[in-house]
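Q: My labmate handed me this sequence with no annotations at all. I'd like to see what the chain might look like in three dimensions before we decide whether it's worth expressing. Could you predict it?
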Amino acid sequence: MVEREVIQRRLAVLADALADLRRYRARFSAQDLASDRDAQHMVMHALYVASQAAIDIALHAGAATEQHQSITYQQAFDRLVAGGLLEQSLAVRMKGWAGLRNVLAHQYVTIDLARIAATLASDLGELEDFARIAATWQ
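A: Here is what I predict for the chain of 138 residues:
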């Protein structure tokens, strides 16, 4: 069973991070991100918090389904599809956010600031769509 309060708390974290990201999008250009370490850290932290909140929501809601346990963060979104809670097309995009979260958390490779700038400029709608759908889960 999806615990509405748990989802709502994580949705609030996601909403706050998205608000920060929209503000940063208006404030920082790609050139700013390339040259300003403070801007880089602010944007990357908000991206991390937003993606982690979405993952936490997926893990919680997925645990309420009859599907096999998720082994990876990306599989958490597949589990939502299998449980009928999420469309495949959005799950694919959300798995990209899980990958970005891992890069930001573990810095597997040098972080591509151009990719961070592009994500900030154009990809927030995926998180907004996910939040809208997750808000309907009871």
